Amino acid sequence: MVLLNNRNIVIGAALTAIFVTLALVSFVYTPYDVTGVDIPNKLKKPFSNGYPLGTDHFGRDILSMIMVGARTSIAVALVAVTIGMALGVPLGLAAAANKGYLLDELIMRSNDLIFAFPSLVIAILITAIFGPSALNAIIAIGIFNIPVFARLTRGAALSLWQRDYILSARVAGKGPARISFEHILPNVANLLIVQGTIQFSLGILAEAGLSYVGLGAQPPIPSWGRMLAESQTMISFAPHMALFPGLAIVFTVLGLNLMGDGLRDIFDPRIRRDKS
Amino acid sequence: MLRYTLSRLQSLVLSLIAASIVIFLTVEIVPGDPASYMLGLNASEDTIAALRDQLGLNVPSYQRYWNWVSSLLHGDFGTSYTYRTPVSDMIRDRLWISLPLAIYALFLSTLIAFPAGILAATHRGSFTDVLIMGFTQLGVAIPNFWFAMLMVLLFAINLQWFSAGGFPGWENPLLAIKSLTLPAIALALPQASILARIMRSSLLDILSEDYIRTARAKGLTRGQTLYRHALRNALIPVLTIIGLQFSFLMAGAIIIENVFFLPGLGRLVFQAITQRDLIVVESVVMLLVFAVILVNFAVDIAYAIVDPRLRGG
Would you list the domain boundaries of chain B? Predict the structure, then answer.
């Protein structure tokens, strides 16, 4: 199996799998309840009896919170990437099929416009108006993903449109929409998977940043970013509260990035050929 | 070159107009009336109506858009709903922290990334290369605000080399720069990692070109080839990324300012959001987007100076 020979993919997939599993398990089981307050057990150090990662200032088990937080992070990032792909890919395909026409120009210029708003600024605008919530964080990150996928798809699709087999498909009487979905899309899928992995990891970072400043998931839903925000004032005497959620973010993002790099290496020969 | 500059200028203006319309419309659909919000629950209908009139809210929206844009062009950002002070004054004070912070971080990230990327590319496959690439992989994965918190724990709380936050003002420039140092390092870390990777791959591409072999064949040393021929060409993609990074630095500063309690634009925006002081949010967002568009314009121009092939198009 070629996938298993790539060290990046193996390490990356293992790291990602750990956190996906934690998130999934948290639906049926967490060591403790994450919404309850248990003041007698507050600020327990890691490895203390029954609390492998210690407890926070409300006595909540940090391991349980990280498990439920994984759910929030992964869900937000995954939905945001899905939004970006679902809207960005068809836009990119349409732009490539209409290269040089008004539609292409219109799509690409609106993409440039979105790019001028850094994702955090979009999030600020959205939360200023609709109030902070996980849903608005998803929308903010998702909107920023649209131009990423639209540009990538258009760029790759443009070179494919020059190919002979596309010409034969046209001769056979297929319309641009059908060619786009039946012949172009399957051939850009590799690129989209690689980019999807990278945007997924960026989404996790963005979600953490947004919930850190209070623009993401709201209490009592645990999220890694807010755990870090809450730990900040207690960092001098309870550094473990800041350590574990941060490590969770780093390992998840690292896992996804390694996986993306590995996949790109495997797909690379194809990508190279498409460029020429 | 002139035609190229003019066409870039044209798209600069178009982007600014489009961005201002988007921002205006977004704020326009906000539920609730700023006038009644400012006056509180007990205000009478008449007072609210009078304030609406004073704020210029009673004219149709296209006219309000026009008023907003034309006063923006005159440097008038309106009056804060909460503080009743000119927004431009509030922004100017805050900008003196956020802008130096972003520039400082950009400087640091370039300072780290260039040598790291060049070293990795010239020693491809060696232990140095693997080590540098490993660090960049980590640098991209670490959230900068978490890195900032860890630095506070180590350098401010344990070693006490720096203060944990706050800003002493520019009266003492050394002290001011010192207090921006940890935030700038935190901001620079992920950007330096990205930049080092781009520098490395861009330089590797160039080093495999025929003209590099020719330069070596005619007797130039490795160092001479690198500085006279390779680096200049490898800089083109790097320049684009630096331009893009500026917008991330401005936005990232918003989060990092929160870690270090720096009274910059970011803190201003968050206060404004909680107080629903939308005119401040509107102005700061417009300013950030303006900065991004302007920097990208500058990058396009710099691009054409470095690469003459672009000037024709």
Answer: 32-76, 88-312
